[in-house]
Here is the input.
Amino acid sequence: MKGITLSEVAIRTTLQPGDLGYITYLHGKLYKAEYNFGTAFEAYVAKGLIEFYELFDERSNRIWICEHSGQIVGCIALMSRGAEAQLRYFLILPEYRGIGLGKKLMSLYMDFLHQCGYRKSYLLTTDELHVAARLYEACGFRLTDQTETTGFGKRLIEHRYEWTAE
Here is the structure.
């Protein structure tokens, strides 16, 4: 969006009615448009968001939902996996990229990760998401595994990034 600044984007940490469906919708639409992912990806996101909701404990899980003019424009979540955390649902609409929102969300994620005392975190992504990979690496995540898959309606290479406390 022309002229938008980071200070104009509100970030909340509570789920509201409609959020799970809308975040699923955004992932489906955006990943189809930008990476040609199929409906299987949208179903994967929906299933994961339901799991996030059902297992949610505010002491060890968090979601950051970015809004501008009453619309969701981005998000990221930290999901407890016992002794480690999983970074999930990192998405920013194209018109909100380049204003520092991705860095802000990663900073909020890392702060909460430390606050909760997690010593490890991981995320799963694909080799096509280069800008996101640079953000992950800037926060100390390292590529630890690559697997070829056709899980989202096309051939791709899934990447696993891990972060370990020093």
